[in-house]
Amino acid sequence: MRHLLMGVICTVGVSVAASALAQSAETSPIPLATTQAPVLAFEETTAIRDAVSSSSRSISNVMRDAHRNPQATLEFFGIREDQTVVEIWPGGGWYTEILAPLLRDEGKLIAAHFPAESDVAFFVKSRKDYEHMLTRRANVYDAVQMTTLDYSSDNAIAEPGTADRVVTFRSVHNWLEAGMDETRTVFAKMFDVLKPGGMLGLVEHRARPDVDLEEMIKTGYVSEQLVLELALEAGFELVSRSAVNQNPQDLRDHPHGVWSLPPTLRGGNENRIHLMGVGESDRMTLLFIKPQ
Fold first, then answer.
1. Fewer CB in a 10 Å sphere around the end CB: N or C, the chain?
2. Mean pLDDT over the full length of the chain
3. Which residues contact 248 (CB under 8 A, 6 or more apart)?
4. CA angle 68, 291, 224 (to 5 degrees)
């Protein structure tokens, strides 16, 4: 009976994932690249698992794994411990806590953070806090290379054509708030830093297909179609989509947009129990390639 139940559960899980991907595909005529999504060897998935399980991670970050699915997300992006990976706007370092130990010995992690000097106080504080994190656990983070991602087309993230992977988590809505030209500049920079054949892994809060740009900026939810168009305009090709970070319980109709949900809970105690039950936002997870 146990095996029968597991079979039913697996079948349902596959059906849900397939349904989500099919629904996503219906909103976009974007063709897939001829390149296959990366498949990691057992040793490579084990390395990611060990990094996710690292004792250097903070308990508060570990508690969010159920919503952010780091193991499955990094496997989908094809992250290997011998790669050069650029993490875009790492914020407080949630993914850095995983990527730094994973890449420390054989690879390289480049953290393209907020500008150190900015009119945006949050940017300045966030970067200082991140730098403090790196120095506080130097035995883990000593190999992390810090650079800057700003909106100037003259300032490269890192040496062009040197990265195997670029990863970005829930940042597109911030770029859109700055402006479409600024957003295009970021996508161009991510394209330029990659080697031919290198890949961009992107996670973002997912809006309904019919939402306009103003609503995206207001709510923090971005349409998958817009992200696809921006990436293709920059020169990328779409390799694959994943349903790993979808959340069907998120109806995306909250009074404070995505910030109504955990961990921000901008509404305070208003409807808090319900929102905690919803969990974190529904998210697209996309993989692009810089053509050879």
1. N
2. 91
3. 16, 20, 282
4. 40
Mean pLDDT of the region 198-219: 97
Helix or strand (DSSP H, E) at 113: strand 108-113
pLDDT at 1: 42
- 112-118 own/partner pairs: CB under 8 Å, 24+ apart: 112/86, 112/87, 112/88, 112/147, 112/148, 112/149, 112/157, 112/158, 113/89, 113/146, 113/147, 113/148, 113/149, 114/89, 114/148, 114/149, 115/148, 115/150, 116/148
Contact 167, 85 (CB under 8 A): yes
pTM: 0.90
For residue 171, the one-letter residue type is S
Q: What is the pLDDT of residues 41-76, one digit of tens each?
A: 999 999 999 999 999 999 999 999 999 999 999 999
CA distance 214 to 194: 31
Sign of CA dihedral 153, 159, 161, 166: negative
CA 100, distance to chain mean position in Å, is 16
